[in-house]
Amino acid sequence: MTWRRFAVFGDSLSLGVGDPTPGYGDLGWPARVEHALRAAHPGLAYLNTARAGATTAQALREQADRITAFGPDLLHLNSGANDIIRRTLDWQRIEDDLRAMYAWAASTGARLSVFTLGRAFVIPDFPDFTDRVARLNDITRKLAAEYRAAVADCWDHPLNDRPDLLSADRIHFATVGQAIIADLLLETLGGPDR
Question: How many Å apart are CA 194 and CA 188, to the nearest integer?
């Protein structure tokens, strides 16, 4: 398949937020993927509606209509990171919100993709955060399988062991990580020509 209309939905992960890394261009993963796709298909149209801090439910309210109107044939989805940065979690609501996102995304007819969160994503204020990420990733894998979304699995990828992976905030990937996950997503999708 030839991708012609690439859209990205979600939060700061979907924006590609992160500090620069020496030797790497100052681009987030979405721009890197867009450049690779555009090199193969110069007519590619691109839309990124992501907003830093958005939960899945907020992203659906704020972004879904614009993406539906855009008519993507490749659509990258939210991974739910902001859904688990709460003192008390309602796992059923988290799963319901993610399911609503996948159901809407499937209705666009686009090929869907998503990342799992990496094990390097840790917020020290939450002692159980690694367990939260693992549980969220399990939900992501389950829903992605149901909706036939491509999963670029970052959980146990070697990128997690890089000392230069994270930005100063210790949450977002620096540009070295952005470059790696862009390559991982393209590989998961079968390359820019697919």
Answer: 10
Count Cα atoms within 13 angstroms, Cβ side, for 124. Answer: 2
Beta bridge partners of 46: 6
pTM for this structure? Answer: 0.93
CATH 3.40.50.1110 fits 5-189, yes or no: yes
H runs (alpha helix) in the chain:
12-15, 29-40, 56-70, 91-107, 129-146, 175-189
Residue at 104: amino acid letter: W
pLDDT digit string (tens) for 50-59?
999 999 999 9
Domain extent listing, the chain: 5-189
